[in-house]
Write a structure and sequence with these properties.
mainly alpha, Rhopdopsin 7-helix transmembrane proteins, disordered N terminus
């Protein structure tokens, strides 16, 4: 997931593309992420189905599918060296970020929180995601800060329901959500440390760790 790339547009990806070893490393890290995401999707949906709750199954499937889409897009982006294909994959990568953020909220809000606040935040997050994806398709990378602003807005949207979220979610889920946020945010430092060898691959590893933490939080709320 390349959310920090938004500030630099395609130029940053082009710079990394000039260093094949780093592109391979990034592809390997997120290729592993894609395989783990597929396994996670399978496990989540399978165990959620045992509960007999359609909302649990659907929300688990949405989170898992969004995770798979993001890691597949990122892996292909770093693995394929065809300019025209890269341009398409880069747009897919940006769009997949919207899907992952909204997909992560889905089971936590619908199953973990529920009620007015859970469904309300769920609706708002997906509305912003849809708007962000639509704008991205229309303007591409002409307004990079716009994508960044919508990512941040989605990420912090849970603040409007912080009281019911803290009240309804388990302590272990809250801890893993916070840990995932730290991993995502901490990874940005490596992304910006451009002189560090393989900084982009390290950033991708941090993203993978963040997703893993959020997977545990989702599992705790949907399955456990």
């Amino acid at each position: 997931m390349d959310s920090a790339q938004v500030a630099g547009g395609r130029a940053d990806h082009s710079a990394h593309a000039e260093r094949p070893a780093e592109e391979v490393a990034s592809a390997i890290v997120h290729g592993l992420g894609a395989m783990l995401a597929i396994a996670g999707l399978t496990l989540l949906v399978t165990f959620a189905s045992f509960t007999g709750d359609a909302v649990r199954v659907a929300s688990a499937a949405i989170f898992g599918a969004c995770t798979v889409v993001l890691y597949l897009c990122s892996t292909l982006l770093h693995a394929i060296r065809l300019p025209r294909v890269e341009r398409v994959l880069l747009e897919c990568d940006y769009i997949a970020i919207y899907l992952l953020i909204a997909g992560t909220y889905t089971p936590l809000m619908l199953v973990g929180v529920g009620g007015f606040w859970g469904w309300g935040v769920f609706g708002m997050v997906w509305a912003v995601a849809a708007a962000g994806i639509g704008l991205r398709l229309l303007v591409r990378d002409r307004y990079p800060r716009l994508s960044l602003a919508t990512y941040l807005a989605m990420g912090w949207m849970g603040v409007v329901a912080v009281v019911p979220i803290v009240r309804e979610l388990s302590t272990s889920a809250l801890v893993m959500i916070a840990a995932g946020g730290v991993a995502y945010t901490g990874g940005v430092a490596f992304f910006l440390w451009r002189s560090l060898p393989f900084n982009h691959a390290i950033w991708h590893f941090c993203v993978l760790m963040g997703t893993a933490c959020h997977f545990v939080a989702v599992w705790r709320e949907v399955i456990a």
